[in-house]
Amino acid sequence: MHVKKNDKVIILTGKDRNLTGEIIDIDLKKGRVKVARRNMIVKHKKPSPTTGEAGARIDQENWINASNVALFSEKTEGPVRTSARWKGKGGELFASRKDAALSFGQDAPERITKVRYAKKTEEVFD
User: Fold this and answer.
1) Helix (H, G, I), strand (E, B) or coil at 74
2) Is 106 buried (19+), middle (13-18) or exposed (0-12) by CB count in 10 A?
């Protein structure tokens, strides 16, 4: 998925279009996300006579398809597309994991860090 929890995103479609928010939950199997205080719905809770709980109307966030949100760029103050890059020696970015590992030479770490990179703004997310 192109977004992660706690990412700042902008909503591209629907009643909350062009509003930004932070991702609070992700459903990887169904490809959807919940954005804080966006796409709100009202859940009605029935009163329970056995436990004595009162009925209530509860506001909560509803799911949004992940394709309808995009990462928010602080530079452009709008949506931005990202692609995968790997960090090599000195924080240099490479298009492939193999090239990043070669930049370290003999002292390459076991795990090469993968980041999200926006070509348009040259921002690195993560």
Assistant:
1) coil
2) exposed
Q: pTM of the prediction?
A: 0.88
Contacts of 17 (CB under 8 A, 6+ apart): 11
Query: What are the start-end ranges of the H helices in 1-126?
Result: 97-104
Query: What CATH number has the domain bearing residue 67?
Result: 2.30.30.30
pLDDT value at position 110? 93
User: Residues 108, 53: one domain?
Assistant: no
Domain coverage including residue 68: 1-79
Under 8 Å CB-to-CB from 61, ≥6 apart: which residues?
A: 24, 25, 34, 35, 36, 37, 38, 39, 40, 41
Question: What pLDDT is attached to residue 39?
Answer: 97
Q: Are residues 56 and 88 in the same domain?
A: no
Which phi and psi angles does 90 have, rounded to 5°? 75, 15
pLDDT, mean over the chain: 96
Q: What is the pLDDT of residues 106-122, one digit of tens each?
A: 999 999 999 999 999 99
